[in-house]
Amino acid sequence: MKKTLLLALTMIMSITLLAACGGKNNNEGSSPSTSASVSPSPEASGTASESPSESPAAAELSGKLKILTHRTDLIDDGTMDKYAEAFKAKYPNAELEFEGMTNYANDIKVRLTTGEAGDVNMIDSSLPNSEAGNYYEPLPDSMFENVYFADFKAYEGKRYGLSTGVNTQGIVYNKKAFAQAGVDKVPTTLDEFYAACEKLKAAGIIPLYMNYGAQWPIGNWAEGSVKYVAGDMKWFDQFVTSDTPWQVDNAWGTLITIARTLVQKGYVEKDLATNNWEMSKGEIASGKAAMYFLGNWVIPQIIGAGAASEDIGFFPLPYDNSGKYNAPLGSDYMMGVSKNSKNKELAFAWVEFFVKESGYVDAQGFMPVDKSQEPKVPQLAEFNSFNPTFLEEIATDPKFNEIANKAEIDLYVGKTTQDLIVAKDLQKAYDELNAKWKKARSALGY
Q1: Residue 145's domain is classified under what CATH number?
Q2: Is 125 in the same domain as 262?
Q3: What's the CA gap between 360 and 84, in Å, rounded?
Q4: Could you tell me where the DSSP H helices lie in 218-276?
Q5: pLDDT confidence of residue 256
Q6: Could you report the per-residue pLDDT of 110-169, keeping only the tens digit for each?
Q7: What is the pLDDT of residue 172?
Q8: Does a structural domain hold residue 405?
Q9: 233 and 300 in a common domain
Q10: Residue 71, Cα to own-chain centre: how many angstroms?
Q11: Alpha helices (H) along 249-343
């Protein structure tokens, strides 16, 4: 299956990745969603609500929608207003209000519990699918024809979220910074990666901007990436019956150890405490910093911050010295309609328009959600030239997230990862997490 998927992607990417995309992004572009654990569900094939596009009264839909988003940058630069104008051209009696949240991953949890989650929002990645129906309205089945991740947020035959973009993940880098430091070869092993970091540091360039202070990006050094590094996209399932998922010698340990090495050797930004996310894009664009470990969604941001597209590259993270890599195919945030919305049909229309018609997916550097469409980010061609084995995100046991939530281990938002990266004793820190995990499993009867 992996070879088939890789061949298909190779054919698609090599033929079509010709034009660069602009745009910018903000919090949580890939971390939780690129590799976020999701819950399994039966085939979602129940009776569907009528799609807004199929309704003869679609053009008469009216009302006001409040839309919560992590894309504060697109609100600030007017992009969301442009999407709203295009939507209103189709639905002239609609009124849209956007609210951006800078710490979305944490804040949306609170909003859901207080009933202040607007009409449409990006779904909390850690929300168990079994609980989705408590907060979200099932979406029309017609939205899910030929799309990736159709059942990621599905439960008992009902789908609650539509993917807003398809990501892979790796090292986004500034080619001019590499050249200035004398790095004349893209690293294909972990040792080569560290050697490149040393050259960059010696040249006065920040080797890798980790964005430790922003918190959410560093999930890639843990739960955001461990499954594909382990080579098993259902890797989390085994932890439902384990009291000790955190180990120094498993994929979780592999990634955290790399992150700890980068910090200890001074290969990341000096100011770890401050949230410098927006500033960091300019640092990468100018070559003051050389690399990010993020998804393809960040590429248009860097271009929007001033870099020429041809100066920005993308390669798989060499997490060991084998010279072979796995890379994920994962969903960005899933978009859902609040169960409390008073304008659900209009909200359905917005979700479908935003993902399939607004241009957001292409402009933000994602691979298309529609499987029949072609990606348009040229850096993906370089990424694919390293022949990674793509592993597509699949549904995993919902008990994993239930245990994590019960244990109060904040997966997908970065705080736990922050603590691990700077822990004096990694094994001790893992032992403490395992103790919490064991207690939560026992309390839930797992």
Answers
A1: 3.40.190.10
A2: no
A3: 12
A4: 226-230, 251-264
A5: 97
A6: 999 999 999 999 999 888 899 999 999 999 999 999 999 999 899 999 999 999 999 999
A7: 98
A8: no
A9: yes
A10: 13
A11: 251-264, 277-286, 299-304
**Cβ pair 208, 183 in contact under 8 A:** no
Please write the tens of the pLDDT for every residue from 339-379.
999 999 999 999 999 999 999 998 888 888 998 887 778 89
Predicted confidence (pLDDT) at residue 263 exceeds the cutoff of 50: yes
DSSP state of 373: S
Q: Are 377 and 214 in contact (CB under 8 A)?
A: no
State how far the Cα of 394 lies from the Cα of 232, in Å rounded to an integer: 10
Q: Which residue has the tokens 């328009």?
A: 353
d(CA 255, CA 320): 10
**What does the pLDDT average to over 177-189?**
98
Domain span including residue 377: 31-166+333-392
| Cβ contact 26:277 at 8 Å | yes
Structure tokens given for 163: 């993917």
The Cβ of residue 198 has, within 10 Å, a number of other Cβ atoms equal to 16
Write down the residue that tokens 């090599």 correspond to.
14
Give 83-110 as a DSSP string.
HHHHHHHHSTEEEEEEEE-TTHHHHHHH
Residue 81 lies in a domain: yes
Looking at residue 298, its pLDDT comes to: 94
Q: Are residues 93 and 145 in the same domain?
A: yes
Both 147 and 192 in a single domain?
Answer: no
Closest by alpha carbon to 61, among 342, 357, 359? 342
Helix (H, G, I), strand (E, B) or coil at 237: helix
How far is it, in rounded angstroms, from Cα 288 to Cα 311? 13
- Distance, first Cα to last Cα, the chain: 32
Per-residue model confidence as pLDDT tens digits over 200-235? 999 999 999 999 999 999 999 999 999 999 999 999
Sign of the four-CA dihedral 155, 156, 157, 160: negative
CA distance 31 to 37: 11
Residue 164 is encoded by which pair of tokens? 């807003």
Tokens of 135: 């907060």
Cα–Cα dist 344/350, whole Å: 10
What residues have CB less than 8 Å from 410, skipping those under 6 apart?
416
Q: Is the pLDDT of residue 49 over 90?
A: no
Distance CA 167, CA 170 (A): 10
Please provide the average confidence, as pLDDT, over all residues in the chain. 86
Rg (CA), the chain: 21
